[in-house]
Specification:
This protein is α+β, with helices and mostly antiparallel strands. Strand 2 and strand 3 form a beta hairpin. Strands 1, 2, 3, 4, 5, 6, 7, 8, 9, 10, 11 and 12 form a twelve-stranded mixed beta sheet that branches. It starts with 6 loop residues before the first helix and ends with a helix. The protein is built from 19 helices and twelve strands. It is 62% helix and 12% strand.
Length: 660
C-alpha cells in the first residue's frame, strides 16, 4: 500500500493500553501513598493528641499536615521530572529509530521539556495525595489516641470477620455482580473501562476477607499445634499494616496477567491471520510487472493483484477491495459468521454474463476469459501443472481494455454481494444479511453483507468484491502490488527471475521479510507495556518493603517480648515471615481468575468497542508461572531486606524493656 501511514491510527491500540496502565499506576500509587500516610500518622499519634490537648483546632492541624504533604508532593514531582530527563534522553534515540524504521516517521531523538505535562503531573500527584490522605487524616484527627491501634484491634479480636471486613466482602461481591450484569450493556470505551475498574476494585475488596477466612479455617484444622496457631494469629495482626501493600500487589498481578494474556492472544491471532493474508511468497510493487511477462515464467505457480478504492460510509473511510475469486489469500476459510454458502453466493452473485474464449499458444495453453464491462484491466494469472505434462499450463484471466465500451448500465444482480471486515460489524452495527447503499459508477447500489473477515490493524471499514465486479462499479480503482506464489523452485530462483525481468531489488519483498517486519511492529509496539508492567511490580515491591519496615518499627516492643519469652531467631523470623508468605499466596490465587477476567474484558469489550477486532482468549500458563516466580522472589527479597538489622533493633528494645 503506497498510502501515507497514519501514526495515530497505527498506534491507537498502544495508546489505549498505555491509558489503562496509566490509570492502574495512578490507583497503585494512591494505595501506596494511603499506606504511607497511615503509617506516618500512626507514628505521630501522640503528637497529634498533645496538640489537640493544648487547644490546637482540627482545621489548623489538618492545614499544617496538608501543607507538609503538598511540599513533599512538589518535591517528588520536581525530582521525578529531573530524573525523567536523562532517562528520556537515553531512550529517545532508540524510540526515534524504531518509529523511523517501522512507521517511516521522522521523530527527533532529543527530548523536549513540556511545561504543560509537568503541571499536569503535579496536579495529578496532588489529586492522588488528597484522595489518599482523606480517610487516615479524618480518623487521626477525630481520635488520635486510639487511631494507631484501632486497625490492629479490629482485625485481631472479635468474631470470624470484623464489621469492616464483612462490609468489604459484601462490597467485593456486589461489584462482581454489578460487573456481570453490566457486561452486556457496555457499549462505549468509558463503560468498558468502568467494567475493568469494577473487577479490579472487587478483587481488592475481597482480599482481606479471604485472608481472614483462611486464617480461621487454618486455626480450626491445626488443633493444638501451638506454633501454627501462633503464626496464623500473627497474620491478623500484620494484615492491617500490609493490607494496602497486598492490594497494590494484587492490582499489579491482575493487570500483568490481563495485559500479558491480551498481548499473547493478539500475537497468536495476528500470526494465524498473517499466515493466510500474507501467503504469497513474494510481493512486488505495483506498476513494475506486466501480466504477460509473469505468465511466461515457469517458476510462477500463481499470481494475483488486488485493486482498491476508498469512499466513505457512516462518517468513516471504507476501502472497497477487488479480490480474485481464486486467490489463495482469500478463501472460504477466511469468512467468519457467514451466511449459508456465503463464498459460493459471493462468487455467483457477482458474476456478469460473459463469453468465454480459449486461445492456445505454442507451449503454453493460454485460456483468456474476457469479462464484459471490466474497464482498466484486471490482472490475475494462475499457473498449474497439468497431469502427465512437463510444461506448465497457464490460465490467465485478463480484462480487455476494449471491454470499456460495455454498457455502463449492466446490472445483473439486485444487490452486490460483499464480505466486510469486522470493523463494519462492531463499529457500524452491520450484521449478516444487512444491506446498505454506496454511490458507484453505475449509480447508487445496494451492498448485502454475506459474512465478515478479520482485518487486524485496520481502523477503517473494508469490503471485498470480486475484481471483475469492482471494476464495473468503480472503474478508477487503483492497482495494488503483485502477490506471487512460487512453484517448486527456490525463492532464490524467483528473485533471479524478477531481476531478469528488470525489476529492481527494492521493488519486491519476500513473505519472510514481510512477516518479520509485521511481528517487529507488533513486538515493539507492545514492548512499552511490558516495561510498565515491570515498573508497577517494582513499585508494589517497594510498598511491601516499606510496609514491612513499618511493621517492624511499630511492633518492636512486642517482638522484644517474644525474645524475652525465649523465642529463638529462627522461630521469630518464621512467625513474622509466615503472614507475608500466606498473604502473597492468597494474592496470587485471587489474581489468576481476576486477571483472566480482565483479559476477557480487554479482548471482548475494550478491543471490540475501540477497534472492532475480535480474537480468541488464549491463556498461556508459562508467562503466568514465570510472573508468580518473579513475584515470590521479589517479595522474599523485600522481606530479607526489611529484616536486616532487626536482631540489633529487637535486642535494643529488649534492653530498654529490661531497664523499664
Amino acid at each position: 500500500n503506497s498510502e501515507a501511514l497514519d501514526l495515530t491510527q497505527l498506534t491507537q491500540s498502544l495508546h489505549t493500553n498505555l491509558t489503562a496502565l496509566g490509570l492502574l499506576s495512578f490507583v497503585v500509587g494512591t494505595f501506596i501513598v494511603f499506606n504511607a500516610v497511615h503509617f506516618s500518622l500512626h507514628a505521630r499519634r501522640q503528637t497529634l493528641g498533645i496538640l489537640t490537648d493544648l487547644g490546637a483546632g482540627k482545621s489548623a492541624v489538618i492545614a499544617a499536615i496538608l501543607i507538609e504533604a503538598s511540599l513533599w508532593a512538589l518535591l517528588g514531582a520536581v525530582l521525578g521530572t529531573l530524573l525523567a530527563q536523562p532517562l528520556s534522553a537515553a531512550l529517545m534515540p532508540a524510540v526515534a529509530a524504531t518509529l523511523q524504521n517501522i512507521y517511516g516517521a521522522s521523530v527527533s531523538s532529543q527530548p523536549v521539556f513540556n511545561a504543560d505535562l509537568f503541571w499536569q503531573a503535579l496536579l495529578l500527584a496532588l489529586s492522588g495525595l488528597l484522595l489518599a490522605m482523606v480517610l487516615p487524616l479524618i480518623r487521626s484527627i477525630d481520635n488520635p489516641a486510639v487511631a494507631g491501634r484501632a486497625s490492629n484491634e479490629a482485625s485481631a479480636v472479635g468474631g470470624v470477620l470484623s464489621q469492616g471486613e464483612r462490609l468489604s466482602v459484601f462490597v467485593g461481591i456486589s461489584l462482581l455482580v454489578i460487573a456481570f450484569m453490566a457486561y452486556p450493556l457496555a457499549g462505549t470505551v468509558v463503560q468498558g473501562f468502568a467494567l475493568l475498574a469494577l473487577v479490579l476494585f472487587a478483587g481488592i475488596a475481597l482480599l482481606p476477607g479471604i485472608i481472614v477466612l483462611i486464617v480461621v479455617v487454618g486455626n480450626l484444622g491445626l488443633g493444638h499445634h501451638w506454633m501454627g496457631r501462633w503464626a496464623l494469629s500473627d497474620v491478623r495482626f500484620q494484615l492491617p499494616h500490609l493490607r494496602l501493600a497486598m492490594m497494590a500487589l494484587l492490582l499489579t498481578l491482575i493487570a500483568n496477567i490481563g495485559v500479558t494474556s491480551l498481548v499473547g492472544s493478539f500475537r497468536i491471532a495476528l500470526t494465524n491471520w498473517l499466515e493466510t493474508r500474507l501467503s504469497a511468497d513474494i510481493y512486488v510493487t505495483a506498476g513494475v510487472l506486466e501480466p504477460e511477462s509473469i505468465s511466461q515464467q515457469s517458476w510462477v505457480q500463481s499470481a494475483h493483484q488486488r485493486r482498491e478504492i476508498d469512499t466513505t460510509f457512516s462518517g468513516r473511510k471504507i476501502t472497497i477491495v477487488g479480490v480474485d475469486v481464486d486467490a489463495p489469500d482469500f478463501t472460504a476459510t477466511n469468512v467468519i459468521d457467514g451466511a449459508p454458502d456465503a463464498f459460493e453466493r459471493w462468487i455467483a452473485g457477482n458474476e456478469a454474463p460473459q463469453t468465454l474464449g480459449s486461445v492456445v499458444t505454442n507451449d503454453n495453453r493460454l485460456n483468456s476469459a474476457t469479462s464484459t464491462g471490466e474497464a482498466g484491466g484486471r490482472s490475475a494469472v494462475k499457473v498449474s501443472e497439468e497431469a502427465g505434462s512437463s510444461s506448465g499450463s497457464i490460465s490467465n484471466s485478463v480484462a480487455s481494455s476494449a471491454s470499456a465500451s460495455a454498457p455502463a448500465s449492466n446490472e445483473f444482480a439486485s444487490t452486490e454481494k460483499v464480505f466486510a471486515n469486522e470493523q463494519l460489524r462492531y463499529l457500524a452495527g452491520i450484521e449478516v444479511g444487512d444491506s446498505f447503499e454506496l454511490m458507484t459508477a453505475l449509480g447508487e447500489r445496494s451492498f448485502e453483507v454475506l459474512g465478515f473477515f478479520h482485518d487486524y490493524g485496520n481502523v477503517n471499514y473494508a469490503l471485498h468484491l470480486p475484481t471483475e465486479r469492482l471494476l464495473e462499479l468503480f472503474p478508477n480503482a487503483k492497482q495494488q502490488g503483485w502477490g506471487l506464489w512460487i512453484a517448486d523452485e527456490s525463492l532464490a530462483t524467483a528473485e533471479l527471475g524478477l531481476t531478469e525481468l528488470g525489476v529492481e531489488p527494492g521493488s519486491w519483498v519476500s513473505q519472510r521479510d514481510v512477516l518479520a517486519i509485521s511481528m517487529a511492529i507488533f513486538d515493539r509496539t507492545f514492548a512499552i507495556t511490558r516495561a510498565l508492567n515491570t515498573l508497577t511490580l517494582l513499585v508494589a515491591a517497594i510498598a511491601i518493603f516499606a510496609s514491612l519496615l513499618a511493621v517492624y518499627q511499630i511492633r518492636r516492643s512486642e517482638y522484644a517480648l517474644w525474645r524475652s519469652l525465649g523465642a529463638t531467631w529462627p522461630t521469630f523470623f518464621l512467625v513474622s515471615g509466615f503472614p507475608m508468605i500466606l498473604m502473597t499466596g492468597v494474592v496470587m490465587f485471587l489474581s489468576l481468575p481476576l486477571g483472566i477476567a480482565l483479559s476477557w474484558l480487554l479482548i471482548n469489550k475494550i478491543n471490540v468497542i475501540s477497534f472492532g477486532w475480535t480474537m480468541p482468549v488464549v491463556i498461556d500458563a508459562a508467562p503466568i508461572v514465570f510472573l508468580f516466580a518473579v513475584v515470590a522472589t521479589v517479595v522474599l527479597a523485600a522481606f530479607l531486606l526489611a529484616s536486616l538489622g532487626q536482631r540489633s533493633a529487637v535486642n535494643g528494645a529488649l534492653k530498654e524493656l529490661a531497664g523499664e
